[in-house]
DNA sequence: GGCCAGGACACCA
DNA sequence: TGGTGTCATGGC
């Protein structure tokens, strides 16, 4: 079984190619993007990030100087903009309160400590924390999301009711601990989820159909 | 015009 | 612990 999850990775990589994640110019942009993309299409996030760029607000210092109202206005295209403005403010507030605004210092902490700290912040849950860990702090943490659960439960590898932590432990027990591998695998899962493994799946076009137990049983009843 | 998107939190039983 | 409502814009 050790090879199974790695083999699926290789199939996705061969099919889609490298995804070059995370699409951002700096660790701070990764964090902003990770918060803005919560339950939101990345295209809408890009609009919000572009607004922040236009206002030169993509550094902790500049962002902390914006009012919450102004910040909300700039990130409006990303949806949930009032909530997300609060979340961004909470993050930079913490950064200044404990690290004098020095993000590198915060991200350089040991993995376990950093994760617990991120999770303690309002608006940062498991997936956002792990995205920051992997893509901003370059820690070997596997990021789990809704696509991960959907794809691998339909493949018959895990239960559809598996928890976030259990699913994360599953992947990290099945793979070598590699930042590069975890980076690419999560990105490929998102790519595959967007393309094929939707709520209404397109199994006939799926590169993993041969691996999919529910698809093999009945091509019309894929995991549904 | 409904569905869906790279979640998290509050509240309830 | 687990289920449900809320937060909101924009493409398809």
Topology of this protein?
Layout: H1 2-16, H2 27-36, H3 42-54, H4 60-65, H5 68-74, H6 81-99, H7 103-107, H8 111-120, H9 126-136, H10 146-154, H11 164-174, H12 179-195, H13 213-217
Helix pairs in contact: 1-12, 2-3, 2-9, 5-6, 8-9, 10-12
The chain binds a DNA duplex (13 and 12 nucleotides) through helix 2, helix 3, helix 6, helix 9 and helix 12.
Structure, described:
The chain has 224 residues and is an all-alpha fold. The chain has 2 domains: 2-20 and 143-217, Orthogonal Bundle (Endonuclease Iii, domain 2), CATH 1.10.1670.10; 27-136, Hypothetical protein, domain 2 (Endonuclease III, domain 1), CATH 1.10.340. 62% of the residues lie in helices and 0% in strands. Residues 219-224 have low confidence and may be disordered. The structure holds a DNA duplex (13 and 12 nucleotides).
């Amino acid at each position: 079984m050790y090879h199974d999850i790695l083999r699926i990775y290789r199939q996705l990589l061969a099919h889609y190619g490298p995804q070059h994640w995370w699409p951002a110019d700096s660790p701070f942009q990764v964090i902003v993007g990770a918060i803005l993309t919560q339950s939101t299409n990345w295209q809408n996030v890009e609009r919000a990030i572009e607004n922040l760029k236009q206002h030169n607000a993509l550094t902790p210092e500049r962002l902390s100087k914006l009012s919450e109202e102004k910040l909300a206005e700039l990130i409006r295209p990303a949806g949930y903009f009032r909530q997300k403005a609060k979340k961004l403010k909470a993050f930079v507030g913490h950064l200044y309160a404990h690290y004098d605004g020095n993000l590198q210092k915060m991200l350089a902490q040991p993995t376990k400590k950093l994760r617990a700290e991120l999770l303690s912040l309002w608006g940062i849950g498991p997936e956002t924390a792990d995205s920051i860990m992997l893509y901003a702090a370059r820690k070997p943490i596997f990021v789990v999301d809704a696509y991960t659960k959907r794809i691998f439960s339909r493949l018959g590898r895990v239960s559809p009711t598996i928890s976030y932590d259990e699913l994360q432990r599953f992947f990290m027990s099945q793979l070598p601990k590699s930042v590069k591998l975890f980076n690419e695998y999560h990105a490929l899962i998102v790519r595959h989820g967007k393309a094929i493994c939707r709520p209404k799946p397109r199994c006939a076009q799926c590169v993993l159909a041969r691996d999919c137990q529910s698809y093999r049983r009945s091509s019309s009843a894929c995991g549904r």
